[in-house]
Amino acid sequence: MVQVLCAPGSPCLCTHASFVLQAKNKETGALAAAKVIETKSEDELEDYMVEIEILATCNHRHIVKLLGAFYWDGKLWIMIEFCPGGAVDATMLELDRGLTEPQIQVICRQMLEALHYLHSKKIIHRDLKAGNVLLTQDGDIKLGELPGTGTGQALARPSSSSLGGRPMAPEVVMCETMKDTPYDYKADIWSLGITLIEMAQIEPPHHELNPMRVLLKIAKSDPPTLSCPSKWSLEFRDFLKTALDKNPETRPSAAQLLEHPFVSKVTSNRALRELVAEAKAEVMEEIEDSRDEVEDDDSSESASVSALGPVLASLPVHLWRGERARLQKAGLQLFWPGQLGNSAERDKQPRPGSKERKSIGERPESSHLENFMEEKLANGSLDPPAPFPGSRSKGDSDSGSTSASESMDLTISLSADLSLNRESGSISLKDSRMHKKTLKRTRKFVVDGVEVSVTTSKIISEDEKKDEEMRFLRRQELRELRLLQKEEHRNQAQLNSKHQLQLEQMLRRFEQEMTTKKKFYDTELENLERQQKQQIEKMEQDHSLRRREEAKRIRLEQERDHVKFLEQLKQMKKEVKNEVEKLPRQQRKGNMKVKMDDFAQKKQTMEQEFLAKQKEDLELAMKNITAQNKKEICDKERECLNKKQQLMRDREACIWDLEEHQQQEKHQLVKQQLKDQYFLQRHELLRKHEKEREQMQRYNQRMLEQLKIRQQQEKARLPKIQRSEGKTRMAMYKKSLHIHSSGSASEQREKIKQFAQQEEKRQKAERLHQQQKHETQMKDMQAQCESNTNELQQLQNEKCHLLIEHETQKLKSLDENHNQHMKEWRDKLRPRKKVVPPPCEQGVLLGPGG
C-alpha cells in the first residue's frame, strides 16, 4: 500500500534522531513523510504512542497532520503530512542567506496562529526552531518535527519541567534545578523570538559557542537582539523585544502577539510563495577560478613597494556575513557603493601605489571597493594573519598582514577575505589564491505568472568543510544532551510511577488497617451489647423466678401463721366461754351472748388486721425483692456501660493513634520520596555535568588543534612570503640605486650586500616575532580554554549548590507543613474527645430509680 520514494539519508528529508523516507500511497498517489524510529524497549514505544495520540488530536492548517502510524519489523512508522518546501533552515542554507522581513512576517503570523491553537489545547511545543518550520508549495508553514515524533520527547502538557531544544527560555534553564517551578506556554513565545532571529541571521544567537556556554548566556545575559538592528524595521525590533522578555509573567501570549503591528497587517503569503519558488527553482551554477587572475596581480602588488618602506596596494577584500559588524565595532570605517563618491571627494589626492582592481564575480548585496593602506614602517614587516576570535573564516589565512598604526588611513572593500585581531588591532589579508573559487548561481522561477531571475555569487573555500564539520559537531553535542535528557525523562517517569505506586499501596494499607481496627472494635461492641442483653434477660428471668419463689414461701409462712392465728382465736374463744361458765347460771345465758358477740367482732377485727398485715408484709417483701432486682440489673447495666464506654474510648484512642501514626508514616514516605527525587536530580545533573565537561574538553581540544594547524600553515607560508617579498624589495632597491646612481659599482655591491644583510635580519626578526606571537596566541587560547572550563565548573557548582539549597528548603517546608497539619489535627481532636461521655454520666442516669 505504501511505496518508498527515497532511501534513508537522502537529501529530501532527514533528522538527527531518526531517518525519514518520502513515501507514496499506491492507491491514492498521496505523498507522505514516513518517520522510521527504532524502539529498543516497550517503555520507549509507549512514550511514542502517547505522543502519537497527542499529535492525532491536533487539527490545524499550520500544524503537520498525522496520517497514520504502525509498528513493523521492530520499527515504528509514523506517516505525517509531506511538505515539499522543506524546512526553513535548509532553505536558508540552500539560498545562502537569511529571510527577508516580509517573509519573516508571514512565517511569524502563521506560527503564532499554530501556537495559539496548541496552547488552547493545553499543549506546549517545546522545540520551536527554524528546522521545525516546514514550507508547503502554497506558501504556508507547518509546525513539524514535533518532539514526540522526532526525538522521543513529548509535546508537553502545562507545567512541564523538561528541557527542550536549543532556543530555551530562561525559566526552562532554571527548571533544571527547580523541578517544582516548571515553565508553561510562555516558553514557546521565547523560542519564537529566538527562531525569528535565526531566520533573519541564518544562525541563532550564540551559535558559535559551546552549548554549555549558551545555557550560561541565557541564564545570566540580557535577551539576545539582532546583530544589525538598523537593517530591520522598528516594528520587528519591538516585536522581538516584547517576545524576548526574561520574565514569563510579563511575557505576552500568542493571542496578544497576534495583535502586534508586526504581524497584524499580514494579509498575503506571496513572500513565502516567492521563497519556496526560489528555493525549488532550477539552478545554473558556474565556478570561476580566481587563481590565474590573482597570480597576474602579484607583479602589480609587488611594484607598489618602495625603497622607503612597503606600501600595501589595493588588495581585494571579501567580508563574509557577520564580519562587517565586527569591523565596525573594532573602529574601522566601512564605505559601501553609495559612499564611494563622498570617499573619493574626501581623498582627492591619490595615494602612492594605489590602483583599482575588479573582483572576480559579483555578489548580491555587496560591492567591490578599493583598499588603500599606507604605513610608515622602517624595516617593512609582513606579519602572518592573526586569528579572528569566534569567527568562522571563509578562506585560508595564507597571506601576509600589515600591522595597523594610529596614523593609518584605511578604506575596506568587499572583495577579498580579511581577518582582524581585536587585541592588537592588526589587519590580516588572507591570500586565498591557491584555494578560493567563485561560485555563481542563477535561479529562474515564476511567481504569479511573473518570471524572476536571481543571480548570486559566493566565494567557496576549504573552510566551508570546516564550518559544516563544526555545525555537525554542535548538533552532535546537542543530540548527546537530548539523549541524556530523554533518559532522564524516562528515569523520572519510572521514579514517579514508583512513588505513585508506593503512595497508593500505603493508602490502601492505611485504609485496610483503619477498617480492621474499626471492625475489631465494632465487633467487640456488638459482643458486649449482646452479652449485656443476655445477662440482663437472664437476670430478669432469675429475678422473676426468685420473686415467685419468695412470694410462694411468704404465702406458705403466712398460711401457717394464719392457722396459728386461728388456733389462737379458738383458744381465746374457749377462754371466753370458760370465763362465762364461771359466772352464776342466771348470768351465763345473757353474758354468753354478749361475750360471744364481742368476741366475734374482735375476732373479725383481729383477723382482718392479721390478713392485712400479712398482705402488707408480702407486698413489702415483693417490693424489696423488686428493688433488689432492679439494683442488680442497674449495677450490671452500669458495669456493661462502663465497659462499652471504655471500649469506645479505646476505639477512638486507637483510631487517633493510628491516624497520627499514619500521618507520620505518610510524611516520612513523602519526605523520602522527595529525597529520592532530588537524589535522582543530582545523579542526572552530575551525569549531565560530566557530559558537559567532556564536550567542553573536546571543544577546547578542537580550538587548540585548529590554532596549531593555523599556526603551522602560517609558519610554512612565512618563508615563501619572505622570499617573494625579499625579491621584490631587492629589485626595488636595485632600481632605486640605478635611478639615483652614485658611487662606483663596488660601492653599490656593498650597499646591496648591506641591504641583503638588513633584509635577513628583518626576516629573522619577523620569524622571531611570529614565533612569539604564536606562543602568545597559544597561551591566550589555553587561558581561554581554562577560562571556559572554569566558567563551566562555576556554573555547574552553582547549579549543584542551588539544587542542594532548594532541597533543603523543600524538606524544611515539608516539615513545617507537616507540623502545622499535626497541630491543626490535634486542635480538631479535642472536640472529638468531648463527644465520648465519661463512664459515670450515663451510670448516674440509670440509678436505682430506673
TrEMBL record:
Entry similarity comment:
Belongs to the protein kinase superfamily. STE Ser/Thr protein kinase family. STE20 subfamily.
Q: Where are the transmembrane segments?
A: none
Query: Key word Transferase present in the record?
Result: yes
- Reactions listed under catalytic activity: L-threonyl-[protein] + ATP = O-phospho-L-threonyl-[protein] + ADP + H(+); L-seryl-[protein] + ATP = O-phospho-L-seryl-[protein] + ADP + H(+)
Task: List each copy of the Protein kinase domain by range.
Answer: 1-263
Output this protein's name.
non-specific serine/threonine protein kinase
Sorted alphabetically, which InterPro entries does this protein's record hold? Kinase-like_dom_sf (IPR011009), PKK (IPR022165), Prot_kinase_dom (IPR000719), Ser/Thr_kinase_AS (IPR008271), STE20_Ser/Thr_Kinases (IPR051585)
Q: What is its EC number?
A: 2.7.11.1
List where Basic and acidic residues composition bias occurs: 344-377, 747-773, 811-828
Q: Where is the composition biased (Low complexity)?
A: 398-408
Q: Which organism is it from?
A: Athene cunicularia (Burrowing owl)
Q: Name one Pfam family in it.
A: PKK
- Bias (Acidic residues) ranges: 285-300
Q: Where is coiled-coil annotated?
A: 484-631
- Give the matching PROSITE patterns: PROTEIN_KINASE_DOM, PROTEIN_KINASE_ST
